[in-house]
Every structure is written in structure tokens, then in C-alpha cells.
Automatic annotation (TrEMBL), chains A, B, C, D, E, F:
Swiss-Prot/TrEMBL GO biological process terms: riboflavin biosynthetic process
Name of the featured protein: Creatinine amidohydrolase
Signal sequence bounds: none
Source domain of life: Archaea
UniProt KW Secreted keyword: no
Region Disordered: start-end pairs: 1-34
Swiss-Prot/TrEMBL keywords: Hydrolase, Metal-binding, Zinc
UniProt GO molecular function: hydrolase activity, acting on carbon-nitrogen (but not peptide) bonds, in linear amides; metal ion binding
Organism: Natronorubrum thiooxidans
PANTHER family: 2-AMINO-5-FORMYLAMINO-6-RIBOSYLAMINOPYRIMIDIN-4(3H)-ONE 5'-MONOPHOSPHATE DEFORMYLASE (PTHR35005:SF1), 3-DEHYDRO-SCYLLO-INOSOSE HYDROLASE (PTHR35005)
InterPro entries in UniProt: Creatininase-like_sf (IPR024087), Creatininase/forma_Hydrolase (IPR003785)
Co-factor(s): Zn(2+)
The keyword Hydrolase belongs to this UniProt entry's keyword annotation: yes
Length: 237, 237, 237, 237, 237, 237
């Protein structure tokens, strides 16, 4: 169930117990991928997992701006501070308290949001005033391989999801996140180690490959949702 | 230009001077209209105004959750505090500083966001550390008639934009926002004066009517954008 | 009962159940009206309503500075941010928790405070940790006519309350709050549409007229207080 | 010049360079003194000092609630947190930036506000974005003797200023602020060491004594204002 | 028990009921005393009091930076705002909730932290969500004499505790905290009244004197801890 | 140069251009390692790097509490929120503005602090009001191997630095940070996957091994400091 297009009576009738909150980012993704890449992917994964899962779930509207200051020197990048993201997501989740929702899963599409969402998930779960549990999930963590930034895997997923929004895939000016030397962060902004903004080589990416990766991560999310589903958990353990 | 689906190089090439930020809400809109009504309408208006305007503009991703605590007792309503909305939007706009953007217009779809966005627009415009001007725009203010809540006009616009997401239009359990008596706010939550959540009678709404209203407000926004466009302004005055 | 001039033992003996908090503003009111107009009127209304009401009420000290940045370019205007006003009023109301007070009414004299006080009233009423209810009341909302800014009605009330502090009434350089065009806020500061700061024509204002308006709004507040009084409410409804 | 009763044109004409901000408190002052004692005294001192000083000064409206949690168990006490007081006063002072005001003096009537106002005065004076200097002044610091709380001196000043608001002066249930033992604060609330809330013996207080004390502290403030006046300072040093 | 060097199993076995939190400062202490003076002394007192007390206590790691903006013009001074100190200490104390700790004592070494810690102690003690009591203790308050700043007493204690870190004691360029005139704070920064930063004459300070002072204040703290110990308190009173 | 034990005149004479801020944590480290492990190691590394480096550096006092809520169910763990840590460190670094310091390096001993310090370093470096650059450094990042938590490498370093504070090394109840399944964080607290709190097998750890690791990371930090030293940088590029 997509929340945006449902009426309140449909939500009442559906009485979903699990809410998926896609959290994306608006940030440079090399010269070939859209700046909304992380939002597009997170939103699509959540929608598909909702369709495939047998749980009573609802997909909340995607949050389009995350924590991405290190991409800030490229046009088209938007960013909010970790504390701002925390407050916004916290308020959204508090809105779900005293509803049918028992479990909230952050479907995260951007690594820079990870730490903030992880801390918040713990904070919400432990809060005595909230009657629900929150979890962090990240598609990059459900993939064995290294995802890069606008690299092969990410570009492949985009070619599967929205080929019209993808330009001619390029090789990134860096092959890895090349910012740390001697244990210290030497480069604090992406453009200091990748002029075109991409990390990894996307030239070989294909829509078929993207479809496989996408299905894998959707399956992983479905599996995760069932694992943390409160009602399932209670009957099983 | 839609930011979400553009690459950073396209943004650099386009060098837009005006940014439109649709700000919506996720809140009950009676039994027939989707909870995302305000986001859907704001997003659609911004997209159309961008297409029709001759300015170099970019439409930022829509913010889907606004200030709507008074609808909080209906399932499907999400809300953030005014201060949280202010912080999130402020961070987004600060990301645009030192880019080609000179003017930011909040395309607001929800009355409850109005005061916060108005204050913030003033704060941003006056800020000595930001090199841009911000403005509040609200589609309900561009319409002569009373819009209500999931009433005739709003429902008509939805029937024009997304008929599949609209149920059988109903008459609201209130005909006006019936919360104030003797100068004081007697009802602080919508359900205290409208059991089905709607305000106004939507039973006569038509897609044709919605098309006319929609085109009117898009034209109003286009006109407003030209008025506040900095470059235009400088040459004209 | 005026809190400022009462001792704690008098408060204990009186055991008031309703608290009135006048919230004013310090802002330009044209060349003839004092910058404290909103505070003066709110304070006077609260005092009179307390005297006329049969409830056990207490009038808290007036808050003299509200949200008025749009008047900021005129000398003598003070302003706090919405979040600052919210925090200050919230702390004040929290001080009343676990006392005899069951109901708090914000007697607001300035439109710019309205949204913040409305949100806060709801927040306080819903707070599980506070054992009281809070309400927003505004004298401008208890008047049928348009009040303007240092216009006829407001000036008349001042001529009734404090004629020595009122200069020669003038016609405002604007007749209405002329800041919105095509649905957008084109002028963010009062001086952009009214050079002398006033909105409406005060030249015909009289003390007699002011007395009538004042008595009407005081009666409205007394009526509102009885309506929201918890003990009354419980026995009546 | 009193700001509250002046019009903006009068403020513009007066072009005051010094602003006095009375900061009071609403808190128990024993069974005989009003809870507004600190506000009443601070406001009166500021008004008199303004009248007697030859500087171009303006008295801002008094802030009626300060930091007084330790009196919180007595009815009639209101309190805000130090951070809330800081924000409110800071916003007020920022409103004075880019006006004729060059110096702001906090005329403090309550010891509990002292540390917050001292820190803020320093912060404002040092702020590169504000073109004024701020200072803390406290009437209790201008008196050689120990002032107590609703004790002889404070009660005497009240008998001079507002005899009708003062009940039969009593001896406090404590003669000194008896809260510290072995270097630690053993009592965190006034009622733990003074059942009637007063500290010191007010039974001998007279209006004549109060008049002398009051005139002394007003003279001290006038002297202080001249000392910190920027224009004076520049010509003298 | 020192927390830093204990393992969690040792803490579990020890089950301490009292926690001592040394709060210091990093700020100029004249040309002869280290900038860490307040931290060094607070830490040493807490350690000794823990050893001498018969209570089950634990010494938390010292907080090294406090509220010291008035020393900010001297190299080597660090400072945090009162609100920042409050948040940090509050978070630390909240970590102790739902553990064996029943009482927390702030062992404060710096006057500038005093007000913030006093307010916080009250706030924590009163908090319904925290099951412990917090107290402020300051070594300067356990000494009859005037301590000054890098003056005789403080320097003597340092000569006892860490003679190698003390240079040749000097006489301060001020003999008292010379910042207030006519009830107002005329000097907001230490260097305005003491060029070398010291207040008081340390030339006669000796390690023997310091040992006596130190032992006196440690005894005072031990006595205070026993007084506020919850279990003791309950059985005794 | 250690700041804590230096006088302000020594700091003035030394005029250090680089500041090292050790940031630790107080959290369970298995049954054999002290809860202050991260602080002890960070402090020791900073001290040694300062001694070995040829730069004019100063070591600030260590911050002893970081972001460690996931260890919160073990006695002896303290934690602050990311926003609290950010504020505290930011205030400390702002104290260094307008001094001789040009570069600040966070010498971090705890992974949970990493994201907050990285964001803050970027924020400080970019701040137009601060005339210094800030960097994040973490000893775990300077080691090729997996460090674990109270595992072999960390325990070895402790055996080198403070053998008396280390108990009999044990094997952790988990061999890796076993909290993520299917891309989602299934365990939000350490005790859910390691009953004794340790991650990795420390039974083979030796002081000799620890000495080698320690020297390696100190060398890495020295190398990093030279790389980011502003004066060096300017002459080289």
C-alpha cells in the first residue's frame, strides 16, 4: 500500500503493521546518473518489497534530501545536517505512534544517512513513549559487491529502473572512495579525488545486471521485514 | 527542469536561476481524496509552471510531510513540527547558496505550512550569509473561491490530475473550518467538527472544473515567478 | 486576580483554575499609535475579562515581545522567532503544571503570534506529561469587521484605553494588507506597501466606538472562558 | 522614554543610543510580598534612571518571567530555563541591531537571571554581526548590604513603590540562603529551608528606608549608564 | 573505584550507588599555574574522596572543558557554552539511569560552571524519567577563605598536587575579581582588570598549606557524600 | 606540548599551529579491558605523536565520553548523543579561532564517534567564520587488520600501554560485529550478539604485539599531521 495515494479510510481498513520509509538523497552521481539516484532506488525497492511481501505494510512518501555535504561542490546537490534529518524522520515516526503500525523500517538509499538513521532507529526503539520498533536497512548492505558511487552496480540498477534518466555511463575519476591516508581523512569533498564525481567504472553496466541486483535486494528486504515483524516474531519465538 | 532526474552536468549546463520547492503534506483528506493530496497538487503545479515559464528554472524534489497535527487523529496523517520543517527547508535552501540560483519559491500545497514558510522566506531573504531571495507561494491563495479541505475545488483538481486515486466524492461533515467561537479556538483537532475529515461539499466536483482551476493557478505561479525573478526585476525597474 | 501583585499565599488561597496569559508585541503601529499597542490591548482585555468572569481565574504577566519581523525596518520594533516564543510560553505554562490551574488561555493581541500559539496550545493540550489544557484566543477574531493595523478599530480601542498615548490618528498608506499577488507573497516587509506603517484609515476613530468594541471582545472572552472551563464543561455536557 | 507608549516616529525622532531592558521574575516572595516583586523593582529602577539620566535612553518593556525553578514548589511561581531566557533576550537585542541603539543594559531584578544575562551580555558584545554592546546590571549588586529574599531591604523598596501590594511584613523562616553544607548544595528548593519562602526579617522595613535604598540604586544605575555610554566613552578616553 | 580503568564486570560487581563527576575547565591561570588547574584539582579531590569514603562510589572521567569565555583572550583557554555543558553532562548522567547509581555529585573545580551545574542538578533530581538524584559540589565553597584565581590557596593546592607543573608563583595584577562598578559588570573579560590573568597574590603559597587545604576540602566532600547518600539518608531520617 | 599542564604564557611562547584533540569513549570493552580503553589509547597516541612530530603542536585534554548507546546495557557505559558531541567539540574548536592554531586533528579512539567527527571536521573547515581547518583521524583506520572490540589488537595495545588495567584476556562471544542480516540491522545493542561484550579473540594478545601496533599508528598520525600542516602545504604546492 502506497500511503500517498491512499485515503485515510483505506489506511484504516488496511490497518498496516509495518511502515517502510524510503530515505534518499539529492546529490551528484557522476555525469551520467541523475542526482535523485538514491531516492529513486530506495523508493523503488520499498514499493516492490511491499508488493512482494505478505505482511500488511505501507510505504510512506520518500524523503528526498539526506546528509550529503561532501558532494556539495557539484551543482544539483542538496543536503541537510544529521540533526535536521534526525528531527524530520523522528517527527514522521512519532506521527505513527498510537496507530496500527508496530514496526518502521528505514529503506535507506544513501550511505551518508546511515549513521544518523541507525542512531535514530535505536533511540526510537528504546523510547518508552513510543509503542513501535524502528530499524535501519540499506540496499548497499544487502549486496555482496562494492557498490561505489554511480559505479557499475548502481548504474545497472538505474538502467533497469529508469533508463531514460541515465546518460552514457562513464568510468569514475576514482575507482574507490579515495579519501583516507594514514588513518586520517585527507579529502573531505568528493571533487578532491574524483573530478567527474563518479567512483567506480560504470561503462559495462547493463539493465539485465541491474534487474538481477534489484531483485536480490528486494528479496533481502522482504526477508528482513518478515524477520523483524512483531507479530511473526511473537508467534515464532 | 526536474532536479531529481537530471545529472549534475545537466544542472551545470542549465544554470537555472530560479528554484521551485514544492512543499506538501501527508494528511487525511476525507474518505475520497488521497492523504498525499497537498503534495500531489504542489508537485504538479510546480512541474507545469516550470514547463510554461520562460525562466531558467529547476523543480526541486517535493517535501512530502508538513505541519498537520490537527489531522493527527485520522490514520495516515504524518506531521512534523514547525521548527523541524523550518530546519529542513532552511538546510535545503542553504545548499543552493553559491550556485546559479538567485530566487527560491516555496510552492506550498498545505495551509498549515504557510506561516512557517513565510517566516523562513523572510529570514532567508534577509540573511547576510545567503546570496538569494526566497518567497512563499500558495495555490489556495491564487484562487478567489474558498478551497475547503477535500472540498469541491481541491477534489476537482485531483480529478484532473490523478482520477484513479480519487474515490467517490462526498460532502464533508463540515461546510467550513468550524473551530473558532467567540474569538477562541474551541476545536483543536479536525475530527471535533468533521467526522469524515472533509470540509466542503465535493459531490459536484468535475475534472473539467479541476482543469480550469489548475490552469489558473499554474498561470498565477508563472506570473509570480516572472515578477520576482531577479534578472527580470533588474532590467525592468 | 492579577498574578504580579499577589503573594503566593493569596494564590494558594484563591486556587485559580483558569490562567490567562496576555501575549502582545512591540512593533510599529503607524505614526499615531504606540508600539506597545498589542500588549496594551491584550493586557486590558484579560484584566477586564477576569473581573467580569465568575470563574476562579488569574491573569499572568503579559509577554511584551512577539513574532513581528515584518515590521522590523521601523524603529521601535522588537521581535522574537516563532521557536523562541514557543519555548518561552511553553516554559511558562509548564510552571503551572501540578498547580490548581486546569485551563490556560493565550489572550493574543498580535496576529503574528497566532500560528505559534495555536500550535503550542495543541501541543500542550495533548502532552501526556501536562495536566492542563491550553487554548488560543485572539481579540481580532472576536470582531466581525476587519481590524487592520493601527486602523480605525484598533485606534478606537486605544482611544478608549489610553488616550494620552495616542497621537493624531492618520490614514494608513495602505488600506489593506497588500502583500500578496498571484498567490505569492510579494512584499515581505510592511514598509514595502505602507510607508507610514498603518493599514486602514484611523481618522474617524472615536473613544466611544472603542469602548463598544472593547466591551464586545471582553464579553466574547468571558464567554469563551466559560465554554472551555473544565469543571463547567464536565457538569454541563 | 518608555518604548511601550511611544510611536515609531517618536522613537525615530528620539534616536536613543542606550536601551534599558528590565528583566524580572514571577516567583514567591514570602507571604507578604507580591510574586512580581523582581519585575516591579527592575521596571521602576529603569524608569527612574531613564528620567534622571541625561543620556538618550529608551526603556524596553519588562520581561516578566526569569529563571526561578527553586521557588517552583510555591504557588504563583513561573520559570523559564536559562537557555529559553537567553534565546528570548538575545532575539530582543538582535532586533535593536542596525538601529540608533549602541548600548544595551540588562536591568536585572532577580539573582537567578544573573549568570545567564552575564554570559549573554558577553556573547552579544563580542558578536561580529551585532553593532552594539550589552551589559549586565543588578540592583542587589549596587547595595552594600545583604538583600535576602522578601527581606528587610526588598520589602522596604516595595513599601516605597507599591505599598498597596505589600501585606504585613514577616520574618522569613530562614535568615540566610541556607542551602550549602560542606561545599555542596544540600537544598535545591527554597521550601526545604524556609517554609514561608522568605529569607531575612522584613518586620522592621519602612517606606522611608525603601526610598533611600531605591534612590541609591537608581543613582548607581545612572552612574553606570554614563560609564558605559559609547559616545561618552569615546570623547572621554 | 575509577571508572576509566575498570572493566564492566568490575563495575557490575562493585555496584556503586554514588557517582562523582569531576567537572573542570581549561583556562588561563596566570603565568605560573597550568591551564588545566581546575580539572586537576577537581579530579584529585574526587579520587581522594572516593578512597576515603566508606560509600560504594565510582569516579567518572573528568570533563576537561567548562564555561570560561571571560578568559578567552588568553592563549590556551577553551570554553563551551552553558547550554553545551548542560547537554553533555545531562547525557552522561542519563547514561547512569537504570544502573546501580542512585546519587550523582558534580565535583566542580571552576566557578563559571557553577550556575549551569546547579540548574542541571535540580532538573535531573526532579525529572520523573530519571531514578537518581544529582547534586552540585564546589571545592571553593568548602573553603572559608577567598580562593581568587591562581591566587595563594589555589596555587598552594597545586604545589601539593603537581609541583612540577607550577611555575614561579606571582602576584596577580588584580587582588580581587574587579569587574563590577555601581552594580554593573564593567569588565567582561579578565584581561581588562588583570593583565597577567591572576587574581590574588600567590607568592607566599606553599605545598604544606596546599596539603592542609586539600585535606580539608576532601573531608568536606566525604561528609557531603554521606549526607546525600540515599540509603544512608533513608535509614537515618 | 600538553595543554593541561602548560601555563598560558607557555602556550603563547610555543605558539603551536596544530592542535590534537583526543576523543575517546567510556564503554564496556569485554570482561578484561577497561571501559576507558578508547580514551586511554587515543590520549596515548596523541601524546606520542606530539613528541615525535617536528611540528609545533599541542595536545588538548581528552574528551572522555562519546557516542556509544549500543553498549548501554552493560554497566559502566556512558554515552552522549551525536548532536551533543558535535556541540561540545565545536565549542572547543571555536575557542581556538583567532589563536596560533591553524589545523585541528581529532584523534579518535572510538568508531561510534567517527561519523559525527567527520561531519564536524567538514563543517569547521568550510565555516567562513573560522580561520582553521579540522580533520578526522582514527587509529583503527591506520591499521590494516580488523580491530574488533576488546579483541586481539586492541587488547595488545592496552597490554603495552597499561598492563595493570587489563584483566585476563578472553575470547569474545562474537568473532565479528554480527548485527546485520539481509542488509538490515537486526541487533541494535551489543549484548544481543555478544554476551560478554567482546568481539574477537584476545587470548593471544601480547604487549610486544601491542607495542608494534602502537608505534605503527603513532607513525601514521605523525605522517598525517605533516601532510595536513598548513605551512607545509603552502610551501609544497
Amino acid at each position: 500500500m502506497q500511503l500517498e495515494t491512499s485515503s485515510w479510510t483505506e489506511v484504516e481498513d488496511g490497518a498496516p503493521t509495518t511502515a517502510l520509509l524510503p530515505v534518499g538523497s539529492t546529490e551528484q552521481h557522476g555525469p551520467h546518473a541523475p542526482v535523485g539516484t538514491d531516492t529513486i532506488i530506495a523508493r523503488s525497492i520499498a514499493a516492490d518489497a511491499d508488493r512482494e511481501s505478505s505482511l500488511d505494510a505501507v510505504v510512506l512518501p520518500s524523503l528526498p534530501v539526506g546528509v550529503a555535504p561532501y558532494h556539495g561542490r557539484f551543482p544539483g546537490t542538496l543536503s541537510v545536517s544529521p540533526e535536521t534529518l534526525r528531527r524530520y524522520v523522528r517527527d514522521v515516526v512519532e506521527s505513527l505512534s498510537e496507530t496500527s503500525i508496530e514496526t518502521v523500517v528505514f529503506v535507506n538509499g544513501h550511505g551518508g544517512n546511515g549513521d544518523t538513521l541507525a542512531q535514530l532507529a535505536r533511540e526510537l526503539t528504546e523510547s518508552p513513549s513510543l509503542d513501535l520498533e524502528a530499524y535501519r536497512w540499506e540496499w548497499m548492505r544487502a549486496v555482496d559487491d562494492h557498490v561505489g558511487h554511480a559505479g557499475e552496480l548502481e548504474t545497472a540498477v538505474l538502467l533497469h529502473l529508469c533508463p531514460d534518466d541515465v546518460g552514457e555511463p562513464v568510468a569514475g575519476d576514482a575507482m574507490s572512495w579515495d579519501d583516507t591516508v594514514d588513518g586520517g581523512t585527507i579529502h573531505q569533498f568528493t571533487d578532491e579525488f574524483s573530478e567527474n564525481g563518479a567512483v567506480g567504472d560504470a561503462t559495462g553496466a547493463t539493465a539485465e545486471q541491474g534487474k538481477r541486483v534489484f531483485e536480490t535486494v528486494v528479496d533481502a528486504l522482504v526477508s528482513f521485514l518478515e524477520r523483524v515483524d512483531s507479530s511473526t516474531g511473537e508467534s515464532d519465538e
